[in-house]
Amino acid sequence: MNIREILPSDTGVAELIKQSDDYAAGLYPAESNHMVAAGELVVATGLFVGAFDGDVLVGMGAVRVLTDDMTYGEIKRVFVLPGYRGRGLSKLIMAALEDGLRRQGVRVCRLETGVRQPEALHLYKALGFLERGPYGAYARDPLSIFMEKEVPVDLEGE
Questions:
Q1: The 3-state secondary structure of 27-88, one letter per residue
Q2: Assigned domain for 115 exists
Q3: How far apart are CA 133 and CA 110, in angstroms?
Q4: Does residue 45 lie within any of the structural domains?
Q5: Residue 147: which of 113, 105, 115 has the closest Cα?
Q6: Which of 32, 48, 123, 129 lies 20 to 30 Å from 145, alpha-carbon distance?
Q7: 62 lies in which domain range?
């Protein structure tokens, strides 16, 4: 398994996005789904990565920095195919995304996830994310949980 940068046009991305959408749609009503389109995952101040088993894309995740002052990055679209869950791929994806923020000097990482995803909540809490209120354009939603984490500083690289 390896993690590397991907583009929305890469082989397998559209299918993974579809499966991610279908999964979320099965858990939440449309007004509580805060997915972004594949094309919105790639911004100049972001990173879109895939987890690969050989040449097969089996997981993905993105981080976007949309604030001019580089205040925080937002995690989006962390998803691993069901047959590959439980192998630590989400942790590897998250580590790559945090590293991307660190390289840009962004020190805060935020995300929105849902109350019906206990595995995701467990992962994010284990990685040091703490609950917070809505941020950016998000409004309070009883099905959403907003989280934040300080990105550790790389003392050797600074």
A1: HCCHHHCCCCCHHHHCCCCEEEEEEEECCEEEEEEEEECCCCCCCCEEEEEEEECHHHCCCC
A2: no
A3: 11
A4: yes
A5: 113
A6: 48
A7: 2-110
Q: How confident is the model at residue 157 (pLDDT cuts 50, 70, 90)?
A: low
Q: How far is CA 107 from the centre of its chain?
A: 16
pLDDT tens by residue, 62-91: 999 987 778 899 999 999 999 999 999 999
Contact assessment for residue 104 and residue 116, using Cβ atoms and an 8 Å cutoff: no
* Number of structural domains the chain divides into: 1
Residue 8 lies in a domain: yes
Q: What percentage of the chain exceeds 90 in pLDDT?
A: 77
Please, what is the Cα angle at 79 between 141 and 71, to 5 degrees?
Answer: 60
**Domain containing 41 — which CATH number?**
3.40.630.30
Any domain includes 103: yes
Q: For position 44, what pLDDT does the model report?
A: 78
The encoded tokens of residue 93 equal 């994806």
- Return d(Cα 107, Cα 129) in angstroms, integer: 13
pTM of the model: 0.92
